[in-house]
Specification:
single chain, 159 residues, alpha/beta, Alpha/beta knot, 5-stranded parallel sheet, 5 helices, 5 strands, globular, Alpha/beta_knot_MTases, rRNA (pseudouridine-N3-)-methyltransferase activity, tRNA_m1G_MTases_N
Length: 159
């Protein structure tokens, strides 16, 4: 399975890079993982609704340009469906079983994802009702994808 993580914003924190690199190394036994970092739009503190939409649309256009038509897209969004680790594992297993070898997880910038990206997504996934920094979300996502592959293979993993 080829998995892309399309994410807005650069990862600056060394400790997050180290954690992500560790899980990417572990995941290499199960899937090809490609992280695509896209630049975020500069956003001042007090934005109007129109300005927020414009920023999300610009970031969304960059995201959509990186996703091929034959890719199954899972958007990470607070309003998405919450799943257990076992349910995520089942989702990944079913995608592989039914020939969906290209999968993209999409992580938006600080304002979230554009309407266009949400429409393109085959499903949306929420890890929590809480808001997480997109950099931290990247680490949480790769850990959960790794956990999902371990679950699918029936291999032990810390609960």
């Amino acid at each position: 399975m080829n998995i892309s993580i399309v994410t807005v914003g650069k990862l600056k924190e060394k400790y997050l890079k180290q954690g992500i690199d560790e899980y990417l190394k572990r995941l290499s036994a199960y899937a090809k993982i490609n992280i695509i970092e896209l630049p975020d739009e500069k956003a001042p503190e007090n934005l109007s609704a129109v300005e927020m939409t414009q920023i999300k649309q610009k970031e969304g256009a960059r995201i959509l340009a990186k996703i091929s038509d034959d890719t199954h897209v899972i958007a990470l969004a607070i309003q998405g469906k919450m799943k257990t680790s076992e349910e995520l594992a089942s989702t990944l297993d079913q995608l592989a079983t039914y020939g969906k070898s290209k999968l993209a997880f999409v992580i938006g910038g600080s304002l979230g994802l554009s309407e266009e990206v949400m429409k393109r997504a085959n499903e949306s996934l929420s890890f929590s009702k809480m808001t997480f920094p997109h950099q931290l979300m990247r680490l949480i996502l790769v850990e959960q994808v790794y956990r999902a592959f371990r679950i699918v293979r029936g291999e032990p993993y810390h609960k």
